[in-house]
Amino acid sequence: MPVPSYGAPPLAKFFLMVRGLELFCMIFIIGFTANFVAEINSQNAIPPQEVVGTLSITSLAALYCLVSIAFFWAQANLGLFIMTAIDFLILIAFIVVSVVVGKPLSVLNCIAVDNASAAQNAASATAMAQSIDSSLPFGHKLTLYYWAGNTRVNCYETKAIWGFSIALAILFFTSSILLPTLWHKAKKAGAGFKQMA
Known about the structure:
Blueprint: H1 9-42, H2 49-73, H3 77-105, H4 118-135, H5 144-148, H6 152-189
Helix pairs in contact: 1-2, 1-6, 2-3, 3-6
Protein name: MARVEL domain-containing protein
Organism: Viridothelium virens
Transmembrane segments: 20-38, 50-74, 80-101, 160-183
Protein backbone atom coordinates (compact mmCIF):
# COMPACT_ATOMS: atom_id res chain seq x y z
CA MET A 1 0.00 0.00 0.00
CA PRO A 2 1.58 3.31 -1.03
CA VAL A 3 2.20 6.09 1.47
CA PRO A 4 -0.18 9.07 1.08
CA SER A 5 1.73 12.10 -0.17
CA TYR A 6 -0.42 15.01 1.06
CA GLY A 7 1.29 17.08 -1.65
CA ALA A 8 4.75 16.66 -0.08
CA PRO A 9 6.05 13.09 -0.40
CA PRO A 10 9.32 13.66 1.52
CA LEU A 11 7.49 15.24 4.45
CA ALA A 12 4.91 12.43 4.53
CA LYS A 13 7.67 9.81 4.64
CA PHE A 14 9.53 11.82 7.28
CA PHE A 15 6.36 12.00 9.40
CA LEU A 16 5.99 8.22 9.25
CA MET A 17 9.65 7.84 10.25
CA VAL A 18 9.12 10.20 13.21
CA ARG A 19 6.00 8.27 14.24
CA GLY A 20 7.96 5.01 14.05
CA LEU A 21 10.72 6.46 16.24
CA GLU A 22 8.08 7.64 18.73
CA LEU A 23 6.68 4.11 18.96
CA PHE A 24 10.20 2.68 19.32
CA CYS A 25 10.98 5.02 22.25
CA MET A 26 7.61 4.36 23.88
CA ILE A 27 8.10 0.59 23.72
CA PHE A 28 11.39 0.98 25.57
CA ILE A 29 9.88 3.30 28.20
CA ILE A 30 6.95 0.93 28.77
CA GLY A 31 9.34 -2.01 29.15
CA PHE A 32 11.70 -0.20 31.54
CA THR A 33 8.96 1.30 33.70
CA ALA A 34 6.98 -1.96 33.84
CA ASN A 35 10.14 -3.79 34.95
CA PHE A 36 10.86 -1.08 37.50
CA VAL A 37 7.31 -1.23 38.91
CA ALA A 38 7.45 -5.05 39.05
CA GLU A 39 10.73 -4.89 40.98
CA ILE A 40 9.31 -2.38 43.44
CA ASN A 41 6.09 -4.38 43.86
CA SER A 42 8.10 -7.55 44.49
CA GLN A 43 9.49 -5.81 47.59
CA ASN A 44 5.97 -4.99 48.80
CA ALA A 45 6.52 -1.28 48.32
CA ILE A 46 4.49 1.41 46.58
CA PRO A 47 6.04 2.58 43.28
CA PRO A 48 6.91 6.28 43.03
CA GLN A 49 4.20 8.38 41.38
CA GLU A 50 6.72 9.58 38.76
CA VAL A 51 7.17 6.03 37.46
CA VAL A 52 3.46 5.21 37.49
CA GLY A 53 2.66 8.51 35.75
CA THR A 54 5.32 7.89 33.12
CA LEU A 55 3.96 4.41 32.46
CA SER A 56 0.37 5.70 32.16
CA ILE A 57 1.20 8.61 29.86
CA THR A 58 3.45 6.50 27.66
CA SER A 59 0.90 3.70 27.32
CA LEU A 60 -1.86 6.11 26.28
CA ALA A 61 0.48 7.90 23.86
CA ALA A 62 1.51 4.58 22.29
CA LEU A 63 -2.12 3.64 21.75
CA TYR A 64 -2.79 7.03 20.15
CA CYS A 65 0.25 6.70 17.86
CA LEU A 66 -0.92 3.32 16.59
CA VAL A 67 -4.39 4.69 15.85
CA SER A 68 -3.04 7.91 14.28
CA ILE A 69 -1.03 5.97 11.70
CA ALA A 70 -4.30 4.53 10.38
CA PHE A 71 -5.86 8.00 10.22
CA PHE A 72 -2.79 9.32 8.40
CA TRP A 73 -2.99 6.49 5.88
CA ALA A 74 -6.72 7.11 5.41
CA GLN A 75 -5.86 10.59 4.04
CA ALA A 76 -8.13 12.38 6.45
CA ASN A 77 -7.13 16.00 5.89
CA LEU A 78 -9.16 17.26 8.83
CA GLY A 79 -7.61 14.46 10.86
CA LEU A 80 -4.23 16.14 10.41
CA PHE A 81 -5.41 19.10 12.48
CA ILE A 82 -6.87 16.86 15.16
CA MET A 83 -3.62 14.88 15.26
CA THR A 84 -1.68 18.15 15.52
CA ALA A 85 -3.63 19.14 18.64
CA ILE A 86 -3.21 15.72 20.24
CA ASP A 87 0.51 15.61 19.36
CA PHE A 88 0.92 19.03 20.98
CA LEU A 89 -0.82 17.84 24.16
CA ILE A 90 1.37 14.74 24.26
CA LEU A 91 4.40 17.00 23.73
CA ILE A 92 3.43 18.95 26.85
CA ALA A 93 2.92 15.69 28.76
CA PHE A 94 6.39 14.42 27.87
CA ILE A 95 7.97 17.76 28.77
CA VAL A 96 6.34 17.43 32.20
CA VAL A 97 7.50 13.79 32.48
CA SER A 98 11.05 14.79 31.52
CA VAL A 99 11.15 17.51 34.16
CA VAL A 100 9.51 15.47 36.93
CA VAL A 101 11.62 12.35 36.32
CA GLY A 102 14.78 14.33 35.60
CA LYS A 103 14.64 16.48 38.71
CA PRO A 104 15.80 13.75 41.14
CA LEU A 105 17.90 11.93 38.54
CA SER A 106 19.99 14.88 37.41
CA VAL A 107 22.15 14.71 40.54
CA LEU A 108 22.45 10.92 40.57
CA ASN A 109 25.79 9.49 39.42
CA CYS A 110 25.28 5.91 38.20
CA ILE A 111 29.00 5.14 38.21
CA ALA A 112 29.18 5.89 41.94
CA VAL A 113 26.32 3.47 42.70
CA ASP A 114 27.48 0.09 44.03
CA ASN A 115 27.97 -2.48 41.25
CA ALA A 116 27.12 -5.85 42.79
CA SER A 117 25.79 -9.05 41.29
CA ALA A 118 22.08 -9.38 40.62
CA ALA A 119 21.58 -11.61 43.67
CA GLN A 120 23.44 -9.18 45.93
CA ASN A 121 21.49 -6.25 44.46
CA ALA A 122 18.19 -7.98 45.14
CA ALA A 123 19.18 -8.98 48.66
CA SER A 124 20.53 -5.56 49.62
CA ALA A 125 17.60 -3.77 48.01
CA THR A 126 15.12 -5.96 49.87
CA ALA A 127 16.93 -5.56 53.18
CA MET A 128 17.21 -1.79 52.78
CA ALA A 129 13.60 -1.45 51.68
CA GLN A 130 12.38 -3.51 54.63
CA SER A 131 14.44 -1.55 57.14
CA ILE A 132 13.33 1.79 55.73
CA ASP A 133 9.74 0.60 55.33
CA SER A 134 9.58 -0.51 58.96
CA SER A 135 10.75 2.90 60.14
CA LEU A 136 8.34 4.87 57.97
CA PRO A 137 4.67 5.44 58.76
CA PHE A 138 2.11 3.22 57.01
CA GLY A 139 1.44 4.22 53.40
CA HIS A 140 4.60 6.31 53.03
CA LYS A 141 6.25 5.98 49.66
CA LEU A 142 9.95 5.84 48.92
CA THR A 143 11.10 8.40 46.38
CA LEU A 144 12.29 7.84 42.85
CA TYR A 145 15.77 8.97 43.93
CA TYR A 146 15.91 6.14 46.47
CA TRP A 147 14.84 3.44 43.99
CA ALA A 148 17.03 4.73 41.18
CA GLY A 149 20.09 4.99 43.44
CA ASN A 150 19.52 1.59 44.99
CA THR A 151 21.42 -0.38 42.33
CA ARG A 152 23.43 0.51 39.26
CA VAL A 153 20.97 -1.31 37.01
CA ASN A 154 18.08 0.72 38.43
CA CYS A 155 20.08 3.90 37.98
CA TYR A 156 20.79 3.25 34.31
CA GLU A 157 17.21 2.09 33.76
CA THR A 158 15.72 5.28 35.18
CA LYS A 159 18.22 7.45 33.31
CA ALA A 160 17.19 5.64 30.11
CA ILE A 161 13.53 6.38 30.89
CA TRP A 162 14.46 10.03 31.36
CA GLY A 163 16.46 10.11 28.11
CA PHE A 164 13.70 8.48 26.08
CA SER A 165 11.19 10.96 27.57
CA ILE A 166 13.35 13.85 26.35
CA ALA A 167 13.63 12.19 22.93
CA LEU A 168 9.84 11.80 22.80
CA ALA A 169 9.35 15.48 23.61
CA ILE A 170 11.57 16.34 20.64
CA LEU A 171 9.84 13.83 18.36
CA PHE A 172 6.34 15.02 19.28
CA PHE A 173 7.44 18.61 18.69
CA THR A 174 8.61 17.54 15.23
CA SER A 175 5.37 15.73 14.42
CA SER A 176 3.24 18.63 15.69
CA ILE A 177 5.11 20.85 13.20
CA LEU A 178 4.94 18.35 10.32
CA LEU A 179 1.19 17.69 10.50
CA PRO A 180 -0.07 21.25 9.81
CA THR A 181 2.66 21.61 7.17
CA LEU A 182 1.36 18.50 5.42
CA TRP A 183 -2.21 19.83 5.60
CA HIS A 184 -1.10 23.16 4.09
CA LYS A 185 0.90 21.44 1.31
CA ALA A 186 -2.03 19.16 0.46
CA LYS A 187 -4.44 22.08 0.33
CA LYS A 188 -2.06 24.21 -1.74
CA ALA A 189 -1.27 21.44 -4.23
CA GLY A 190 -4.81 20.06 -4.27
CA ALA A 191 -3.12 16.68 -3.93
CA GLY A 192 -4.46 15.51 -0.65
CA PHE A 193 -5.69 12.26 -2.13
CA LYS A 194 -2.81 11.46 -4.48
CA GLN A 195 -0.51 8.57 -3.71
CA MET A 196 3.25 8.34 -3.72
CA ALA A 197 4.91 5.61 -5.73
